[in-house]
Amino acid sequence: MPSRTSYTSDTPHVSRTSPASEGSGTTDVLVVGGGIIGLVTAWRAARRGLATALVDPAPGGGAAQVAAGMLAAVTELHYGEETLLALNLESARRYPDFVAELTEASGRDLGYRRCGTLAVALDADDRAHLRELHALQQRCGLDAQWLSGRECRRLEPMLAPGVRGGLRVDGDHQIDPRRLAAALVTACERAGVVFHRVWAQRLDVDGDRAVGVTAADGTALTAGQVVLAGGSLSGRLAGVPPELVPPVRPVKGQVLRLAVPERYAPFLSRTVRAVVRGGQLYLVPRENGELVVGATSEELGWDTTVTAGGVYELLRDAHELVPGITELPLTETRAGLRPGSPDNAPLLGPSGLDGLLLATGHHRNGVLLTPVTGDVMGQLLAGGPLPEEARPFTPERFGAPRTQQLEQTV
Ligand code: GLY
Questions:
Q1: Which residues form the FAD dependent oxidoreductase domain (predicted)?
Q2: Which atom of ligand 1 lies closest to the CA of 364?
Q3: In this structure, what CATH number is given to the domain that contains residue 257?
Q4: DSSP string of 308-373, one letter each residue
Q5: What is the rounded distance in angstroms from the CA atom of residue 259 to the CA atom of residue 329?
Q6: Total number of domains in the chain
Q7: Which structural domain range is residue 259 located in?
Q8: Are residues 198 and 102 located together in one domain of the fold?
Q9: How far is the CA of 210 from the centre of ligand 1 (A)?
Q10: Region 153-165: what's the mean pLDDT?
Q11: Cα 294 to averaged position of ligand 1 atoms, centre (Å)
Q12: 7, 236 Cβ separation under 8 angstroms
């Protein structure tokens, strides 16, 4: 997770070169950023036969190393995000096939669990909040069943006796983002993606077209198309025309990891979410015994400090929800940066500068949106039209001019 203030590093450049880039030193596609969004974009591009490179000092790192991996299109629904909901649901629908394909391509297990989610309320205010969420879900035609507190505890006996009610959503699943990232790295390698393990320092523009990037070690990486997929850092690449800089900001999330010893298993059988005094809390139990507890949401710039206050609040609320949690070993505390955008939705597609596309701003939904983002970007990079589901999410909605590239795709 980046905690630095500049989009540079002195990490050494690894000089693996794909057959496609030998001699010319150029590729069809260059992806800037090796988080899960950059990786899935590179994988999909390479699978379409495009010579593809990716520039990042540590591919597979970034927010996926912190994220809990909820695929919570229904339980993480927010007012005013109904357009985003359609994209989230579409990506959730694609998840089973995506997991099967990536498992096959990488030979790795992704920790995908079709376990469902229970969202619960602890006090009267929380219950009112959850009732409103249920009403919104019903208006959107989503499947969510209201349960009494007793019914919630029957499903999850470790819940506190005071739980006032909840929503059972059997369609909200989970995946292990660390395994997802590792699998995408392997799949990219197997598909021939070239990794430049160095920071991208500057976008290179020739006339009115992006033509590549200059890496921090001075190497010029040229490409027919550049995809900026730098997560929360996407607005910091030098050389992007100021009016086209993606409006992406870091939103800090602190997350805890605990281990469930054999004798307590199954501690929880599904993801449990709650609103506790207005704050979002979730507990994501993995099959391997890991229990992820998240997350704070803090607008503190590039700060990734794990604070006593952050850990305290998460544990305090988690203890209220599931008192037995204080018996578990605490194995990890970590903070990451979500790439927030002004409307909490991603920026997908042409940037406004020919040759430069964006795949960024996924905010709380990067893991969920990985399959659909890969499909959309793969199709665009191969010269296809902008897919219907991506049309509300072009950078144009934030004022980026319509490019020749976008004219051709819609
Ligand atoms: N989607 C969970 C989070 O952003 O905390």
A1: 28-379
A2: 4
A3: 3.30.9.10
A4: HHHHHHHHHHHHHH-GGGGGSPEEEEEEEEEEE-TTSS-EEEE-SSBTEEEEE--GGGTTTTHHHH
A5: 6
A6: 2
A7: 117-170+250-340
A8: yes
A9: 33
A10: 96
A11: 8
A12: yes
CA nearest ligand 1 atom 2, residue: 364
**Distance from the CA of 68 to the center of ligand 1, in angstroms?**
7
Task: Indicate if 126 and 48 belong to the same structural domain.
Answer: no
Query: Within this chain, do residues 20 and 106 fall inside the same structural domain, yes or no?
Result: yes
Residues 241 and 299 in one domain: no
Give the residue whose CA is nearest to atom 1 of ligand 1: 364
Examine the pLDDT at 142 and tell me if it is beyond 90: yes
Q: What span, in angstroms and rounded, lies between the C-alpha atoms of 117 and 50?
A: 39
392 and 268, same structural domain? Answer: no
**Which atom of ligand 1 is the closest one to the Cα of 253?**
5
Specify whether 179 is located in the same domain as 163. no
Q: Cα of 257 to ligand 1 centre, how many Å?
A: 15
Query: Which residue's CA is minimally distant from atom 5 of ligand 1?
Result: 295
| Mean pLDDT on 177-201 | 98
Residues 6+ apart with CB under 8 A from 166: 118, 119, 120, 121, 130, 146, 147, 149, 151, 152
Pocket of ligand 1 (CB under 6 A): 70, 76, 253, 294-295, 338, 364
CA dihedral of 302, 177, 246, 189, whole degrees rounded to 10:
110
The domain boundary, picked from 279, 309, 340, lies at: 340
Q: Which of 305, 340, 375 is the last residue of a domain?
A: 340
Segment 158-172 mean pLDDT: 96
Give 38-81 pLDDT, tens digit per residue.
Answer: 999 999 999 999 999 999 999 999 999 999 999 999 999 999 99
Pocket test for ligand 1, best of 75, 76, 174, 284 (most atoms within 8 A of CB): 76
Q: What is the CATH number of the domain that holds 201?
A: 3.50.50.60
Q: What is the pLDDT of residue 275?
A: 85
Burial class (CB in 10 A: 0-12, 13-18, 19+), 401: middle
Question: How far is it, in rounded angstroms, from Cα 345 to Cα 81?
Answer: 8
End-to-end CA distance of the chain: 35
| 17 and 96 share one domain | yes
Q: Which of 105-119, 292-306, 363-377, 395-409 has the lowest mean pLDDT?
A: 395-409
401 CA distance to ligand 1 centroid (A)?
31
Residue 24 buriedness (CB in 10 A; 0-12 / 13-18 / 19+): exposed
Q: Do 335 and 368 share a domain, yes or no?
A: no
